[in-house]
Amino acid sequence: MFLLVSGASAVIAALAMFVTAYAARRSGRVSVVDVTWGVTLAVVALACAVLGDSSPARRWLLVVLVGLWGLRLSWHIFKRSRGHGEDPRYATLLAAGPGGALLKVWIPQGISIWFVSWPLQVAAVADGRLGVVAWIGVALWVVGVLFESLGDAQLAAYKADPDRGPVMDRGLWGWTRHPNYFGDACVWWGLWLIAADVWPGVLTIASPIVMTYFLVFATGARLLEKTMMKRPGYPAYAARTSMFFPLPPKTR
Q1: Taking Cα atoms as reference points, which of 54, 35, 108, 68 lies closest to residue 191?
Q2: 242 SS3 class
Q3: What letter does residue 248 receive in the DSSP assignment?
Q4: CA distances from 103 to 115, 171, 207 (A)
Q5: Which tens digits make up the pLDDT trace of 32-64?
Q6: Any residues with CB less than 8 A from the CB of 31 and at least 6 apart, and which?
Q7: Most CB contacts within 10 A, which of 110, 112, 175, 234?
Q8: Measured between alpha carbons, how far is 232 from 31 in angstroms, rounded to an integer?
Q9: Which DSSP symbol is given to 85?
């Protein structure tokens, strides 16, 4: 059963990257892959729930949580990026060294979606009632979604303020330079806890670790920082504000 669930997840990820590559060619932006992420993982969660044979409560709880997170994220990114050019992160990635979008974006992103969804795949076949660990995971998921949603709302309010300063350092952004990335990490550690509540879900711990690595180092915060550091006021902001994990801001 696990091979069926995992194989279906891999096929969904591959098809999603194929469609996204076509959309990127039409739009001239490989950054459309960011919209694909949330939607694809929501579809993977649904496929795992339909094909799996474990406790229905755990399978469909994950469908709801991944669906709410993924569809909100994809819609937000779609609205934010509509009418804009290539994301500087991907422009930097594509310009660095040999290899094109196939080797640097489509294949790695497809594999990452499949790998990150391991907790969903295992939870679909690992039976057992929802326990305390699973509900701790739900609580962590809530924290993550609140960080993402509130951070996005605060950033939108900042952009709409005609008297705003050169750098967004209000609210959550005064405690972490990337509240949305931190929220994403919380979401996936929470989903892992829901899977780890039953054996062998705990063995999928590499999934949230890899997700966190992508958010901090690969295509997330570190890559974005290279562009942001060129903006007036950002180096000073970076000196007093934690990059990822929320911490009280340092004295100016």
Answers
A1: 68
A2: strand
A3: P
A4: 17, 38, 21
A5: 999 999 999 999 999 999 999 998 999 999 999
A6: 81, 86, 87, 89, 90
A7: 110
A8: 25
A9: -
Neighbour-count burial of 47, counting CB atoms closer than 10 A to its CB (0-12 exposed, 13-18 middle, 19+ buried): buried
Q: 127: which residues sit within 8 A by CB, 6+ positions away?
A: 53, 54, 55, 198
In this predicted structure, the answer to whether residue 97 has a pLDDT above a threshold of 90 is no
Residue 46: alpha-carbon gap to chain centroid: 17
> Residue 216's Cα: distance from chain center in Å?
11
> What is the Cα–Cα distance from 9 to 124, expressed in whole angstroms?
12
Question: Of all residues in the chain, what percent carry a pLDDT higher than 70?
Answer: 99
- Which pTM does this prediction carry? 0.91
CA distance to 54, 55, 59, per residue, from 124 (Å):
5, 8, 6
Residue type at position 97: G
Q: What is the pLDDT of residue 220?
A: 76
Write the burial class of residue 173 (CB in 10 Å: 0-12 exposed, 13-18 middle, 19+ buried).
buried
CB atoms within 10 A of CB 46: 18
Q: Please tell me which of 18-32, 102-116, 133-147 the model is most confident about, judged by mean pLDDT.
A: 133-147
Whether residue 243 contacts residue 177, with contact meaning beta carbons closer than 8 Å, is answered with yes
How far apart, in whole angstroms, are the C-alpha atoms of residue 159 and residue 19? 32
